[in-house]
Amino acid sequence: MQVVNHVRTLIEKGTLQPGDKLPPERELARTLKVSRASLRTGIGYLAAMGVMKIRHGVGTFVADGPPDLGKASFSFMGALHGFQSWQMFEARIILESNLAALAAERGKEDHHAALAEEVAEMFAAVDNPSDYLIHDVLFHRIIAQASGNPILASIMETITSTMYDKRRKTVERAIDLRESAAMHREIYRALRGRKPAEARNIMEQHLRMAQAAQGMERPIERKAATTKEPASRSRKPAS
Question: Taking the complete model, does pTM exceed 0.70, yes or no?
Answer without folding.
Answer: no
